[in-house]
Amino acid sequence: MILQQYKIVFAGTMGAGKTEAIRSLSDIPVLLTEALNTDQASHEKMQTTVGIDYGEVTLEDGVKIGLYGTPGQNRFDFIWPVICKGAIGAIILIDHNSAEPLQELESYLETFQNYTDNIAIGITHVDDHDSSHSLSIYKEWLIKQDLFSPLFFIDARKKEDALLLLEALITAVEVNHISA
Ligand SMILES: Nc1nc2c(ncn2[C@@H]2O[C@H](COP(=O)(O)OP(=O)(O)O)[C@@H](O)[C@H]2O)c(=O)[nH]1
Ligand SMILES: [Mg+2]
Which PANTHER family match (predicted)? Predict the structure, then answer.
């Protein structure tokens, strides 16, 4: 696996826009890297490899950030803590067209909160939705849960949209750094 000093992890269900968001942000062509399953306790086959999207973005101050897209399928969830190790934050993407977008958000938040306390949420596919869900359900739910993660409605194909999420994570890191 490629090592990068700073990294951000993209999570979310298949089709939510992880690969597309990384492609929008990355200065290099997005690579599909492979990680080896070393967690034999939960997954018997030592040789299982897992596809991870990898891109890189260089910020204005020259800091390079590795962008890692996690595989969405639950059978690969053993790899999430490995990818998240040392990450400065995670971006959770939720497809607004999903049958149960709030349940998905809850489940990903619950999981990734174990790996990082810096999470930003992107609700995708808002442009092509004809779902019965209203856009207000997400913020209402976050407030009810007493959660303060930044949430944006984005189109993962647009760089400026993906940048909103990236900047939210980086700002949180800087704020915490200053107040530490
Ligand atoms: N209309 C629309 N299409 C999107 C959006 N985000 C991603 N897509 C498209 O949805 C498909 C799945 O996205 P992809 O990044 O491969 O999903 P992944 O499985 O999370 O990596 C691709 O064809 C994307 O171009 C969005 O916000 N709006
Ligand atoms: Mg993908």
Answer: ATP/GTP-BINDING PROTEIN-RELATED, GLIDING MOTILITY PROTEIN MGLA
Q: Which atom of ligand 1 is nearest to the CA of 23?
A: 15
Q: Is the pLDDT of residue 136 over 90?
A: yes
Indicate the angle between helix axes 18-25 and 159-179, nearest 10 degrees.
80
Ligand 2 ion: residues within 5 Å (CB): 18-19
Please say whether the beta carbons of 27 and 56 come within 8 A. yes
**161 C-alpha to center of ligand 1: Å?**
13
Give the CATH number for residue 99.
Answer: 3.40.50.300
Residue 1 in any domain: the answer is: no
Count: domains in the chain: 1
Query: Residue 1's pLDDT is what?
Result: 46
Question: For atom 2 of ligand 1, which residue has the closest CA?
Answer: 125
Which percentage of the chain shows pLDDT scores above 70?
84
